[in-house]
Write a structure and sequence with these properties.
alpha/beta, D-Maltodextrin-Binding Protein, domain 2, two-stranded antiparallel ribbon
Length: 292
């Protein structure tokens, strides 16, 4: 049997990025963390952690971290039947896109009890990769699958609107929303992985690889604030901008052209029993907030 303390040290170093931060989480010394990692590497016969800034797990290390998470989930399920064995709330690591987190996910998580959440924030187009690598037990993803060892539940669509202030629209799009005007008007991009603006431009103009100048802001709320300030136009979740559209503070660049992004709840089958209350809450919140 693999020493659980060694597995916990391995997971902590990878997720916190350093031996010092892992030691703080585990309430032991960095030296003790190093000793546990070294002992585990000697037993596994291979390198498990790449030392650096940050420290990251190797593929064999990731496999052992997944094993660590699977054991924790099995113990959580066991504690549901035998409460006397519960050692405290289990931590579930979940990948979620920022816009879902800013609009509908938090109420779903708040509706569950007895769990702690370690949320990995990444684009819905790549969140499945975290699940594939075994770094999370569940993900909100744009990919329906299939993914080996996982189940998928369709949630609905998060609807986006291309919005800007009336003054911004009058300044930059007096001649209409075209490839030419969009190539001059500053937009917003969340990160290098963000393709929402590009997809919408292709939708309304037919351009296959549209180019437009863009500010880079990695915040859902700041996207809305930047649009309200007249800094740029951007793709914003409808639920966040609906009040501003109703009040006239923002306008839709091309009325009646929403972009719907289908989302799915994907999770490992092994984690399914422990995740059941979370899955139920996620499905209920999505049913109320997403376009079905």
């Amino acid at each position: 049997m693999i020493d659980p303390a060694q597995l916990a040290a391995l997971a902590a170093v990878h997720r916190r990025g350093s031996f010092e931060l892992a030691a703080a989480d585990l309430h032991i010394t960095p030296s003790a963390v190093s000793q546990r990692i070294k002992a585990l590497e000697e037993r596994a016969g291979t390198l498990l952690i790449r030392r650096g800034q940050p420290c990251t797990a190797t593929p064999p290390g990731l496999r052992l971290i997944r094993h660590h998470d699977e054991i924790a989930l099995l113990e959580t399920t066991l504690a549901q039947d035998l409460p006397g064995l519960a050692a405290g709330p289990a931590t579930l690591r979940i990948a979620v896109n920022a816009d879902s987190l800013a609009t509908w996910v938090i109420p779903a998580l708040a509706a569950t009890e007895g769990l702690l959440f370690d949320l990995v924030i990444d684009d819905q187009d790549v969140s499945q990769d975290w699940l594939r690598r075994g770094e999370v037990v569940a993900a909100i993803t744009a990919h329906a699958g299939p993914l080996q060892g996982c189940d998928t539940v369709p949630l609905g669509c998060l609807r986006y609107r291309a919005t800007a202030t009336p003054a911004f629209a009058a300044r930059w799009f007096a001649e209409g929303v075209t490839v030419q005007t969009l190539s001059r008007a500053p937009g917003l991009t969340f990160s290098d992985k963000d393709r929402l603006q590009e997809r919408w431009v292709s939708l309304v103009t037919g351009a296959r690889h549209p180019a437009f100048p863009s500010h880079r802001i990695a915040s859902s709320q700041a996207f809305v604030e930047a649009c309200l300030a007249g800094l740029a136009w951007g793709m914003n979740p409808e639920v966040l901008v609906a009040p501003h559209l109703a009040a006239g503070a923002l306008v839709e660049l091309v009325p009646g052209t929403p972009l719907d992004v289908a989302l799915h709840w994907q999770f490992t089958r092994l984690a399914a029993p422990a995740l059941r209350p979370v899955t139920q809450a996620i499905r209920a919140a999505a049913g109320e907030s997403l376009v079905q």
